[in-house]
């Protein structure tokens, strides 16, 4: 069968366009012999309607600030998105589609924002995209409330999502959707691919709830399109109706057939995550009246229809540029601030407000020092906003004198995430991706396990999220082993491109915040104490950037090096005074920053000839063998007792450090 299709009617052109999306996915998955063809085949109609009739975007400038954001939360169906990007004119060639899932290609197995122009976020782990979308919609509402003026809607765009049954089963999506409903984010519209199939089979095996009723209970506007396979008018009308609801986010439940068009596999789990096979590909093409050859065929008429996005997008951006030019003339200071925050440019002198401390200053918990930093930075960084998972007054994250971010009060800078750690982290990722704000989130260190999936994506996607993680050790005390994160610090250090900083005192906490704000493409985990710690001699804001540095030294080559982090640095300093040997004390707030230093510097701090080294950290010893030959650590779970008692009973005393050091010497 050769490529001789000719559209005769609008309906026929729609069919050509929809089948172009379907068969680009089918051919790419078949060529790779790997992937998920079912979702693109079933979602092609809704995607076609959304991208050609509603989505405000410019393929020639994928980073236009007032574009609509599109998120494929069901990221396994990535060929749907790659097909749309190619068809509408983004920098993604047909050859790129043919390299689907291959080494070094721009079309990896799941969408990655850092790989391909037009991809808004890295999705794949189900439900994360829903959280990202809530975060993006939150930023849109915040910037609109902050910058828009009568007659000048310079921030006016939507966040659209395609999600599936799997996303709606994941708790992270439920957490984020609950908050999104509470906040009344009217410019968030989600299209739910309701195909009733997951990898194991029909969703009736495990998922029989009324999803629409659940979202209505969250405070969403919910609609149903009964025939998502062919009812393009119904899909368009539903999107129009969703846009008309301005005080609620919208869920459009669209009933589809997974793998639509496949004679033998449509509507079954067999087409969810496997190539159709050459025989079924041929049968499917014949069934839908599509040429068997060539592979990756796109009818000229369909391509012309999709490529209208180029002129349409250029015109939309040009009109916005004209609007912004007039806005700039009318409100020059606001315009300058908008340009600064949306390009993630930090203002001059922003870090000058970070406090410094002397050893004579009163001891304080590093969580308190962090709170002081936040409130200082809030004055020089108007784009800084954030909150915690219902622990603002334990994590010290509340920005004093500033309003809460709530429905109808979107200029607020104190975010109330509720007890939703995983949703919080996914939302923060979306906020960073949108651009225009520097968001932070907080919880107890032990509960970072609840948000690890999203934190891992922060690192993978290169997102500068500061995570404030307090109550960092057995020093947490009476809450006991369920709340004492003995193994969590090493596990965070194991995440590639996650910056972990455990400051020892006020100066190092200020230095940690300076790094966390500067690193716009790297997440930072700030590991902070509940208990007070003294301000130590020799610490500084600048030294933190080195990762590790010498606090106390002896003449000549040391006999022993004591290496400590956080609240245990004070133990190392006191122990050094009691040892009859040449001792160097090194504060090591961040392994990752230390490893980024030149080898010459690393060797100057930890000379290879000095093999007698003792690490001191109130956490698991896992990983410390790289730097030390012996350890004062805790490799069991903690206990419920006052924090000071826990520290003493588990050996975090000057006496025990001295004894361990003497054993080495």
Model description:
About 1% of the residues have low confidence. Helix 7 packs across helix 16 and helix 16 runs parallel beside helix 17. Strands 10-9-11-12-14-13 form a 6-stranded parallel β-sheet, sandwiched between helices. A 5-stranded parallel β-sheet has the order 1-2-3-7-6, with helices on both faces. It has 665 residues and is α/β, with parallel strands linked by helices. It is elongated. Helix 20 links the parallel strand 17 and strand 18. The relative contact order is 0.09. The chain has 3 domains: 277 residues, Thiamin diphosphate (ThDP)-binding fold, Pyr/PP domains (Rossmann fold, 3-Layer(aba) Sandwich); 184 residues, 3-Layer(aba) Sandwich (Rossmann fold), CATH 3.40.50; 118 residues, Rossmann fold (3-Layer(aba) Sandwich). The N and C termini lie far apart (83 Å). It contains 24 helices and 20 strands.
């Amino acid at each position: 069968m050769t490529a001789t299709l000719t559209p005769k009617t609008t309906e026929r052109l729609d069919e050509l366009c929809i089948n172009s999306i379907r068969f680009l996915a089918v051919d790419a998955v078949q060529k790779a012999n790997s992937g998920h063809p079912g979702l693109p085949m079933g979602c092609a109609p809704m995607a076609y309607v959304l991208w050609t009739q509603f989505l405000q975007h410019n393929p020639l400038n994928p980073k236009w600030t007032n574009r609509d954001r599109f998120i494929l939360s069901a990221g396994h169906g990535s060929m749907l998105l790659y097909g749309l990007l190619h068809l509408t004119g983004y920098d993604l060639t047909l050859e790129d589609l043919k390299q689907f899932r291959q080494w070094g290609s721009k079309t990896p197995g799941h969408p990655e924002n850092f790989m391909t122009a037009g991809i808004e976020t890295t999705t794949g782990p189900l439900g994360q995209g829903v959280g990202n979308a809530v975060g993006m919609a939150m930023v849109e509402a915040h910037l609109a409330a902050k910058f828009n003026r009568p007659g000048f809607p310079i921030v006016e765009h939507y966040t659209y999502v395609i999600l599936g049954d799997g996303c709606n089963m994941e708790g992270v999506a439920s957490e984020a959707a609950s908050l999104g409903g509470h906040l009344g984010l009217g410019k968030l519209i989600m299209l739910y691919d309701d195909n009733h199939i997951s990898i194991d089979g029909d969703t009736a095996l495990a998922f029989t709830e009324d999803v629409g009723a659940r979202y209505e209970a969250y405070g969403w506007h919910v609609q149903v399109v009964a025939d998502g396979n062919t009812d393009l008018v119904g899909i368009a009308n539903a999107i129009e109706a969703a846009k008309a609801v301005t005080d609620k986010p919208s869920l459009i439940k669209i009933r589809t057939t997974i793998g639509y068009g496949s004679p033998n596999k449509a509507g079954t789990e067999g087409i969810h995550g496997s190539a159709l096979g050459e025989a079924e590909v041929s049968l499917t093409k014949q069934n839908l009246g599509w040429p068997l050859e060539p592979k990756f065929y796109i009818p000229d008429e369909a391509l012309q229809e999709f490529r209208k996005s180029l002129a349409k997008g250029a015109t939309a951006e040009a009109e916005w540029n004209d609007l912004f030019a007039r806005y700039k003339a009318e409100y020059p200071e606001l315009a300058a601030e908008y340009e600064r925050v949306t390009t993630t440019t930090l203002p001059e002198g922003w870090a000058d407000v970070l406090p410094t401390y002397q050893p004579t200053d009163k001891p304080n918990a590093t969580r308190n020092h962090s709170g002081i930093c936040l409130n200082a930075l809030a004055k020089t960084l108007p784009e800084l906003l954030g909150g915690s998972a219902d622990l603002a007054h334990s994590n010290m994250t509340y920005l004093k004198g500033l309003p809460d971010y709530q429905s109808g009060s979107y200029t607020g800078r104190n975010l109330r995430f509720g007890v939703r750690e995983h949703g919080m982290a996914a939302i923060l990722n979306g906020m960073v991706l949108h651009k225009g704000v520097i968001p932070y989130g907080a919880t107890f260190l032990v509960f970072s396990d609840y948000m690890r999936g999203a934190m891992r994506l922060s690192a993978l996607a290169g997102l500068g999220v500061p995570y404030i993680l307090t109550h960092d050790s057995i020093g947490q005390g009476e809450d006991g082993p369920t709340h004492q994160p003995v193994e969590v610090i090493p596990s965070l250090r194991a995440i590639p491109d996650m910056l972990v900083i455990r400051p020892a005192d006020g100066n190092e906490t200020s230095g940690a915040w300076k790094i966390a704000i500067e690193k716009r493409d790297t997440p930072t985990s700030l590991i902070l104490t509940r208990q007070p710690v003294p301000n130590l001699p020799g610490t500084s804001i600048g030294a933190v950037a080195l990762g590790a540095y010498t606090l106390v030294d002896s003449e000549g080559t040391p006999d022993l090096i004591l290496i400590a982090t956080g609240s245990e640095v004070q133990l190392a300093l006191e122990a050094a005074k009691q040892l009859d040997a040449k001792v160097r004390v090194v504060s090591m707030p961040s392994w990752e920053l230390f490893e980024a230093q030149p080898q010459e510097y690393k060797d100057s701090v930890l000379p290879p000839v000095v093999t007698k080294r003792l690490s001191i950290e109130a956490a698991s010893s896992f990983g410390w063998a790289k730097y030390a030959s012996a350890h004062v650590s805790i490799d069991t779970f903690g206990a419920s007792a006052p924090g000071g008692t826990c520290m003493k009973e588990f050996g975090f005393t000057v006496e025990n450090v001295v004894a361990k050091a003497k054993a080495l010497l």
